[in-house]
Design brief:
3 domains, seven-stranded mixed sheet, 12 helices, Aminopeptidase, alpha+beta, three-stranded mixed sheet, Alpha-lytic protease prodomain-like, 409 residues
């Protein structure tokens, strides 16, 4: 159980904390966080707030409870749940520097350790949510206008494009849920985090696109071979198709920018769908014009082509995201990691480098060779330093597992 206390709340328990740790810090404006099991205090952390930043004054875990990740869990709780803005700073070197670096703290020029601007982790979520909410709003507008005027203006192509926009509302809503759940911090049941849910949402979106294309294509083919009299679309439908292509262009630019910046695979997939919608709407314009001035059959043919385009993009989205789910290796990134190690360390042999991606985060595994007579302490220090350096210089890397092999004579 994690608990938080102000100094006023903790005053009644000072004897307990002094007995736990005779160096227990007392700050009247301090923030205290504990990890407890029933009435037993396992450990605590004390923070002092100055302006926008928080300073870790002391963290302490009972001796018989150390090496059970309690300190890591307590700090993760503070960072993920309690600090909403600013940086968490440790002003001087501590015996647990290595432990803190593994948690994401970075060395500052003055020797302090800091997790800079812990609010930054929320920016990806907020930027993605803002983009998707905007997409939902505009797709509702486009779906309502295109379906209404497709029906009134007797254009099956515009009607099909309207239902395509309606499907985009559903998929964007799914992405919105994905962004929310993927940003839930890692916990004991999900130690690698929840980022992969973005890929799951992306696949669902691709399936939804395929089902939509099937229904649109089926209706168009039935009408094409039915022998029914074909109505000539009204000219007003052209203007709504043009309006749709312009709106979709700006939606595509916004989604692809945010998707690439935040490495959100579901948002990138949605951007590709919006890009296809631009061509779909322009095809509708041509289909309506040809239907008016040449033959009404073009309106039906274009509606079928729109469904084929939606189907193709749905398959493409699923295949792209499946590569992520199946942990397809980014060969260029793997080579970059190897070059980084060879260029910046004395390590002569790096092999079996593997990676897997979860949302915008990369998890690395690699083997390095060290002399067989090297002590465990020195080898472990080399491994720790390498892990910290990779995470420092490659912000997308969330975790690194390094296996030590010996150099064979």
């Amino acid at each position: 159980m994690y608990k938080s206390y102000s100094f006023d709340e903790i005053k009644d328990k000072l004897d307990i904390f002094k007995k736990l740790d005779d160096e227990f810090p007392i700050f009247e404006d301090g923030l205290y966080f504990t990890i407890e099991k029933k009435d037993d205090v396992i450990g605590y952390a004390c923070l002092e707030k100055k302006e926008e930043n928080y300073y870790l004054k002391r963290i302490f875990i009972k001796k018989d409870s150390r090496f059970k990740s309690h300190g890591k869990k307590l700090l993760a709780f503070i960072i993920n749940k309690k600090i909403k803005k600013g940086s968490l700073i440790i002003e001087k070197d501590t015996p647990i520097d290595g432990f803190l670096v593994k948690l994401g703290f970075k060395k500052m020029e003055n020797g302090s350790l800091s997790i800079e601007d812990v609010e930054h982790k929320e920016q990806r979520k907020k930027e993605g949510q803002k983009t998707v909410i905007s997409s939902i709003f505009w797709n509702i507008i486009l779906a309502a206008t295109k379906i209404s005027f497709g029906y009134i203006g007797k254009s099956r192509a515009l009607l099909a494009d309207g239902f395509n926009s309606l499907s985009d509302v559903a998929t964007s809503s799914g992405i919105l849920l994905g962004i929310h759940f993927s940003n839930i911090p890692e916990d004991e049941d999900h130690p690698f985090g929840h980022e992969k849910i973005e890929s799951v949402i992306g696949v669902i979106m691709g399936i939804f696109m395929i089902l939509t294309s099937f229904e649109l294509g089926k209706g168009g083919l039935e009408l094409l071979f039915s022998g029914e009299k074909r109505e000539i679309p009204e000219m007003i439908t052209v203007y709504f198709a043009l309006f749709s292509s312009v709106v979709k262009y700006f939606m595509y630019k916004q989604k692809i920018r945010v998707g690439i910046e935040t490495e959100n695979s579901a948002l990138i997939a949605d951007a590709k769908d919006s890009r296809n919608d631009i061509f779909a709407s322009l095809s509708v314009v041509l289909g309506i014009i040809f239907s008016i001035y040449v033959n009404p059959i073009f309106d039906i043919i274009i509606s079928i082509l729109v469904s084929v385009l939606i189907f193709k993009e749905g398959v493409s989205v699923i295949l792209d995201i499946t590569d992520t789910i199946l942990d397809k290796q980014d060969v260029e990134f793997v080579h970059e990691i190897k070059r980084y190690i060879y260029d910046n360390t004395d390590i002569k042999n790096v092999h079996d480098v593997m990676m897997r991606k979860s949302g915008d985060k990369v998890f690395l595994e690699l083997h390095i060779r060290v002399p067989k007579d090297m002590t465990v302490y020195v080898a472990h220090k080399i491994s720790d330093d390498l892990e910290s350096s990779i995470k420092q210089d490659f912000p997308s890397v969330k975790n690194v597992i390094i296996h030590l092999d010996c150099i064979i004579d």
